[in-house]
Every structure is written in C-alpha cells, then in structure tokens.
Amino acid sequence: MLRHGFSRSARRGRAPALARSWVDTRTLKAHCARYPGASSRALGEPYNVLLYEVGGKQFAYFKLSEPEKWRFSVKVTPERFLELTGQPGIKPARYMGRWHWVTVVKVRAVPAGYLRELVGWSYRHALGKLSKQRRLALTPSATRER
User: Fold this and answer.
1) Dihedral, 138, 57, 23, 16 alpha carbons, nearest 10
2) Is position 1 within any domain?
3) What DSSP line would sit under 90-139, residue for residue?
4) Between 57 and 19, residue with greater pLDDT
5) 51 has which bridge partners?
6) pTM higher than 0.85 for the full model?
7) Residue 142: predicted pLDDT
C-alpha cells in the first residue's frame, strides 16, 4: 500500500530490517507504554480514545470505537505532516490536524521502524514541553543527557 516515503532511513542504509517489519496495534501500544514516564488512560464517551502521555502532555492515542477502531494518531513536524498526509491510509487527525497530528488508519500498513520513529519524536516533543524539573522527575537519565 505505502511504497514510497516511509523508508527514508532504509534508503540511507540504516535499519533495513525495521523498514520491512510490521507491527500490530497491541505491539504499538506496548511500545508507547515503554517510554520513561509514559502513562496511558482511556477516555470514554464522547471521545473514546486511549491516550498516551508524559507529564500530562499527549504524545499518541488510539481510537477505541467505530468507525476506524484502533486507528492511531501521533504528533509530527509540519514538514512530516505534509509528507504523511499525502500517503494513502494517513490523514490529518480529526480535530487535532491543525496542530500537526496525523492519523494512521491501519497500523499494519506502515513499517514498524517508521512508526517507532514517529512515536519517538512525538514523545520527545511532549517531554520537551515540560519544565526541566518535571522532565528530571519523570526521566532522570534522559534529562541529564540533554
């Protein structure tokens, strides 16, 4: 389905195995939960989403109801937003698109390495919005490296 635009890192010779591997929503949820200081919470009606956040700042979410149950949304850079929304199966996130959030309708349609890269950037962006003191409290080793 997605033939170009996703293997940028693979074209540079990095992690070709990741570019060809795929993940399901269960694996992606586990990946989001592994970040230092990350937490998840489900919001019921009318939102019906499973949020992943760090220090109260969202970095990813899954839709929990139809239509498009388990679609995945993440914040990206403005440049990536333009690149991604031009790909089949990826669209601006409903209500959040104006802040450069994209929705991946089918997680299995996007290579695992690329999804991990997007989640990693979104997590670091959310973490960067916190005060230094708050970052240190949530992620002691990650903050000292900055």
Assistant:
1) -70
2) no
3) EEEPTTTGGGTEEEES-GGGSBHHHHHHHHHHHHHHHHHTS-HHHHHHH-
4) 57
5) 41, 61
6) no
7) 52
